[in-house]
Design goal:
It is built from four helices and nine strands. The protein is α+β, with helices and mostly antiparallel strands and 176 residues long. The protein has one domain (2-168). The strands form two sheets. Strands 3, 4, 5, 6, 7, 8 and 9 form a seven-stranded mixed sheet that branches. A two-stranded antiparallel ribbon has the order 1-2. A hairpin with a 2-residue loop joins strand 7 (136-142) and strand 8 (145-150). The radius of gyration is 15 Å and the shape is globular.
């Protein structure tokens, strides 16, 4: 259990809080932290990912809209061409728990804006691990729902497509 920013206690599951990139049992993957609506209102996916990264992994990300995170000097990015790139990046230890993934959401009201089109996405999720069945797991706040979903579930339920990995350069030492 952790105390959230409002002093309330949230259950985050029996999480493996390290930055392991190997397969772990599904019950060791952290559950999605739950924040009050005052802390993380509906449709504030970027704030949710930032709070969850800090609470689960002690990783800081800048406060900004999902599609603007990539513009900060403190973060690095890895573009994703195909969905299968994520599995490959996990296997190469380049996608690790605590990294944010920018997702294209075809029904977003922000699509068509110039700054959004440059990034290619309007939603972000936090990567939390790969289970023993080789399923990648993510946590996010989608609308008013806080959830932990596999990559397949994110696509099936909301047609989300990964476009870019965003990571804290100080925490993750990656050569691009």
């Amino acid at each position: 259990m952790i105390k959230n920013r409002m002093g309330l206690v949230s259950v985050i599951g029996a999480g493996l809080i390290g930055a392991s990139s190997g397969n772990i049992s599904q019950d060791k993957i952290p559950e999605a932290p739950v924040y009050s609506e005052l802390e993380v209102p509906a449709n504030y996916c970027s704030r949710y990912a930032r709070f969850a990264a800090k609470d689960l992994y002690d990783i800081n990300y800048p406060a900004d809209d999902a599609w603007k995170l990539r513009n900060h000097d403190s973060v690095g990015t890895i573009r994703i061409s195909e969905v299968s790139d994520l599995d490959k990046l996990v296997d190469e230890c380049r996608l690790k728990p605590g990294m944010v993934v920018g997702m294209f959401y075809p029904k977003s009201k922000y699509n068509g804006r110039e700054d959004v089109e440059k990034a290619g996405y309007t939603h972000v999720v936090l990567y939390v691990g790969k289970d023993e069945k080789a399923q990648l797991h993510f946590v996010d706040k989608f609308g008013s729902k806080t959830r932990r979903k596999t990559l397949g579930e994110l696509h099936r339920d909301n047609k989300l497509v990964p476009k870019e990995i965003i990571y804290n350069k100080e925490h993750f030492n990656l050569s691009e």
